[in-house]
Every structure is written in C-alpha cells, then in structure tokens.
Design goal:
The structure is a single chain. With 63 residues, the chain is of the alpha/beta class. The chain has one domain. Helix content is 43%, strand content 24%. It has 3 helices and 3 strands. The chain has a 3-stranded parallel beta sheet, covered by helices on one side. Helix 1 (12-22) links the parallel strand 1 and strand 2 (28-32).
C-alpha cells in the first residue's frame, strides 16, 4: 500500500473543498478533473494508493 492520498474533485466547489482538506491531511495531493479519469484512478488504485472523492458516488462506482 502506498502512502499517497489523492483528493479527487470534479467541480470548482469540490476543488475549493479539496484545497481546504489538503492542508490538513499529510501526504495528500489534489487531482482536479484528472484525465483520462477512469484510467488514472484505476492505475493508482492498483498501486494501492488511497483516495478521497468529492463527487457523486455513482461516478466512483462506475470507474
């Protein structure tokens, strides 16, 4: 498992929340509208990296 934590945001409001969170969580980085979304998330997941998603749950489940 990796120590990386990615805060994934898909909207401007989500990005603002991610900016607030990244200062409070060590080893966190922001992925704002990552592209290609599914590929990037899947590859990081397979490497054991952790996520906080700021978006609809259905988007995450389908990915």
């Amino acid at each position: 498992m990796s120590d990386s934590i990615h805060i994934v945001a898909l909207t401007e409001a989500g990005h603002q929340l991610a900016e607030n969170l990244v200062g409070k969580i060590s080893r966190a980085s922001i992925w704002y509208k990552p592209k290609p979304f599914a590929e990037k998330v899947q590859q990081a997941f397979l490497r054991g990296e952790r996520f906080i998603f700021i978006c609809a749950t259905g988007i995450v489940v389908r990915t």
